[in-house]
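Reagents: none. Just compute today. EF-hand domain-containing protein.
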Amino acid sequence: MQVRMRSRSAPFIALLLASSANCAVGQGGSHQQRPLQPLGDVLHLVFDTDKDGKVSLDEVQLQINTLTMLVAGAEGQQGEDYRRILSGVKAAAPTIFDLLDGDSDQRLTAKELSYATKFEDSLKIKRDGRGGGMRDFIREIFTTLDTSEDDELTAGEILAGCKSDEVITHLSKKLHELFPIRKSPGDLEGFVRSTIESLGGNALDEASVIEGIKWIDADADGIVQRSEVGRYYKTAAMKFVELSKQVRQIGPMFAMFGGMDGMQGGGPGSSEL
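Predicted 3D structure written out:
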């Protein structure tokens, strides 16, 4: 990924990349790559800017803004993809934060952030060809909403699912089986309902649903085919895993140099370069 660097950030990024590359060199001069830390551990390290052992939403948003600035000059389709992903992460951050915050203390512990690792694992294809769990959950959502059983979701079917307590309860149980992030499936119902409603922009009428599904409705026919969901899921999952790997590679050094503070001349042990 080629990035046009601002003069103040160039030394920081160069040092960051050099240090990250050096992590691939094992002890004793060997070139055996060291295992990367789990995603949840790296996110906790990066987001916990005040090093108090817990992460606040303000800290999350600060570091997301920093990452967004770092890829602002990335060129080509890859740059567009990363900016789109970060934009989506930023928009979803408050909702995801609340979901992970199991004890509702407005702080995320390393244990709570470990579900980021579990989420990443759920996206990966296993050696036997089976998915890690998320693909099956997406299929379950589609099948549950597809009451006509024709492998297509109309705006009416999505709308009906939003309003069905039975559907919400069923999908919450399935989500809880995959990610037991709360004590009971019932505690996840609000999240599941809001996720389905987001397809229609929360207006809950057929016109808004049709507008809301345009991002996944590749042929623009106002209907979501199972194949469209499959293609989008495959692309999104691959991009997430790729981005996760980069975060796991660069994250520890990013945290060490103090994120944006390190870039601007602050942070631990920093000086203007």
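The chain has a mean pLDDT of 80.
Action item: order primers for follow-up constructs.
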